[in-house]
């Protein structure tokens, strides 16, 4: 049996990233809540590739964390998002506003969890997008 725990799967077509990008379009982006929470993330392409890798690897079993090996705080992630979008990342979004905008998904970005994909890396799985800046550039430029 294989169990996966996944970080925020990044795609511009739906989900948390799409919602996070909106304030940046109006030059109002910034950290979510206090920004100190861990923000485990993974590019959609890496998520799919990792799942397929685990499904076709006969030795894979147990729990795997599916997220980028380069973990970062929310403040650092949104700073990178602002850089990629050529927008400042200086206006924090209050927690209550995020709960209204994101509903249940707000817990993903407000509570945070420090996840390390140790077993996945040891498998060995190679991430196409371990770096947030490269991942965000790919997603935004290619509207993935």
Q: How are the SSEs ordered, and which strands pair?
A:
Blueprint: E1 2-6, E2 8-10, H1 15-25, E3 41-43, H2 44-56, E4 62-66, H3 74-85, H4 95-102, H5 106-110, H6 118-122, H7 132-141
Parallel strand pairs: 1-4, 2-3
Structure description:
The protein is of the alpha/beta class. It has one domain: NAD(P)-binding Rossmann-like Domain (Rossmann fold), CATH 3.40.50.720. The chain is built from seven helices and four strands. The protein has a two-stranded parallel ribbon with strand order 1-4. A two-stranded parallel sheet has the order 2-3. Strand 2, helix 1 and strand 3 form a beta-alpha-beta unit. Helix 1 packs across helix 3 and helix 3 packs across helix 7. The longest helix is centred in the middle third of the chain and has 13 residues. It is globular, with a radius of gyration of 15 Å. The protein starts with a strand and ends with a helix. The relative contact order is 0.26.
Notable characteristics:
4 strands; two-stranded parallel sheet; 7 helices; single chain; alpha/beta; 144 residues; Rossmann fold
Helix percentage range: 40-55%
Strand order of the largest sheet: 1-4
Specify the structural class: alpha/beta
CATH architecture: 3-Layer(aba) Sandwich
Instruction: Kindly state the number of beta strands.
Output: 4
How does the overall form come out from the CA principal axes? Answer: globular
Order of helices and strands: EEHEHEHHHHH
DSSP helical segment count: 7
Mean pLDDT, to the nearest integer, reads: 93
User: Residue ranges: pLDDT <50 for 5 or more in a row?
Assistant: none
Q: In what range is the share of β-strand residues?
A: 5-15%
| CATH third-level topology | Rossmann fold
- Kindly provide the name of the CATH class: Alpha Beta
Largest sheet: 2 strands, parallel
Distance between termini?
Answer: 31 Å
This entry's quaternary arrangement is single chain
CATH superfamily: NAD(P)-binding Rossmann-like Domain
Instruction: Provide the number of structural domains.
Output: 1
If you compute it from the alpha carbons, what radius of gyration comes out, rounded to the nearest whole angstrom?
15 Å
